[in-house]
Amino acid sequence: MTAQVIAITRPSPGYTRVYLQSDEITCHRFGPADGFKLLLPPSSEFSGSTSSIPMPTPERDATGVPRWSNPAAQPSLRALTVRHHDRRSGVISTDVMHHERGLLASWRTGLHVGDSVTFSGMRAEWYLPAAVRNVLLIADGSALPAALIEAIPDDVDVQAYVSAENTEDLSLIPSHPHLALERVTSLTNLLHRTPRLIRTGERVQVWIAGETAEVRELRRHAVEAWHVDLGDLIARAYWKAGVTSTEADAQRLPRFVQAVSDGADLHDPALAENIDLELSA
Questions:
Q1: pTM, to two decimals
Q2: Strand-pair category, 134-140 with 157-163
Q3: C-beta of residue 83 within 8 angstroms of C-beta of residue 12
Q4: Which one of 27, 103, 128, 171 is least enclosed by Cβ atoms within 10 Å?
Q5: Sheet holding 205-211, edge to edge
Q6: Is the per-residue pLDDT at 48 higher than 60?
Q7: If we measure between CA atoms, which residue out of 46, 125, 76 comes closest to residue 248?
Q8: DSSP E strands: which ranges in 64-204?
Q9: Which is nearest to 148 in space by CA: 177, 170, 126, 163?
């Protein structure tokens, strides 16, 4: 999908918000915090702006895996999340976290209104069963749960722990009548605490997003120590320490290809969780 940049704002010190418009967006039905992949040119060709660089599109083999006729021209992929969407006008926005270096940082600093942007997706990142009346959100700065909180009904109890670079970035999180929000220095602090919603003994949906190893450890802790049912647990790896997103995608690809070969349901959230978090099953 190709869209045009129609606005760029700075909603907080650590994030830039980019608004994208495309007629194709009017045909898509979005869920809260859907994820998508931004297609950027290979680093050897990339200077920041993508407006004048044609983006090659892949062909898909019999298993559905994308293949590029010229591997050297294969674009780099960077994951982003839909913050707002308006199907009527064909507009979505996404909040881009600031980094000092990297492909996404170069893209953000070189971006201008009027530029063309190519992306693929979308992937559902979250859902809330009607029977759930308690939601626990745990996220680092790469996964501020703003779009989720906005979608949670007013009568649902929400507790959120966020590891953000600075307090001002928490202004991106909208108000909610039953939200208890706490900034933590590290998500792993929760390994030594039991959140209030867990202590109630009631059913709680838990959503965890951030660095791969931390999310994997918190997911295990939620199951073993907090006794959260796997059906009420959503864990997402938004980045992996020590490797680039391109390297992390390459590491996950063999597991994805094997899942396709095994006939797995590619829309199954549990499959994405197993691949992203490098779980054994």
A1: 0.87
A2: parallel
A3: no
A4: 27
A5: 179-183, 157-163, 134-140, 205-211, 233-239
A6: no
A7: 76
A8: 66-67, 76-86, 91-97, 116-123, 134-140, 157-163, 179-183
A9: 126
